[in-house]
Amino acid sequence: MTVSKGYGVSEIYIPEGSRFVGRTIQETRLYEHDINVLTLYRGNKVIPNPKPQRELEPNDKLLCFGKLEAMRGMVPAKTRRRRQPDIASLPEDAVSVADVESVD
Fold first, then answer.
1. What does 18-39 look like in DSSP terms, one character per residue?
2. Which residue, among 2, 63, 4, has the nearest Cα to 30 in the 3D structure?
3. Model pLDDT, residue 45
4. β-sheet bridge partners, residue 12
5. What contacts 35, CB < 8 A, 6 or more positions away?
6. Kind and range of the H or E element at 5?
7. Going residue by residue through the chain (104 aa), what tens digit of pLDDT does each one get?
8. CA distance 52 to 58
């Protein structure tokens, strides 16, 4: 399947206090930004193809298809998750680069 450049699937999280809380999907006017809601995740419930009249609640997650740049703009910078690598300590018996170089 080919997707137009700049379009894709992304998840939009609706935090407590969001301007979308208490509004219907239609009232969010996401469609005006070329964003279509594919699925609504609410707690353990999965609501595929939610109706435009569905009211949004805090902690809802919307799986959307649309302009990636527009969807990025919907998420306030302070609520964006930064991907951090998992960092683990090396075991004490790990070989260092200095040990390897001294063998030569």
1. -TTTTSBHHHHTGGGGTEEEEE
2. 63
3. 95
4. 62
5. 64, 65, 66, 67, 70, 71, 74
6. none
7. 556 788 999 899 999 999 999 999 999 999 998 899 999 999 999 999 999 999 999 999 999 999 888 888 776 555 455 555 666 666 776 665 555 555 54
8. 17
Question: What are the distances in angstroms from CA 85 to CA 30, 82, 88?
Answer: 32, 10, 10
User: Dihedrals φ, ψ of 16, to 5°?
Assistant: -55, 135
For residues 80 and 38, what is the distance between their CA atoms, to the nearest angstrom? Answer: 21
Q: 0.90 cut: is pTM over it?
A: no
> What gap in Å lies between CA 64 and CA 39, rounded to an integer?
7
The size of the chain, in residues, is 104
Tokens of 60: 């809802």
Q: Could you give the residue ranges of the DSSP H alpha helices within 1-104?
A: 25-28, 68-74, 97-103
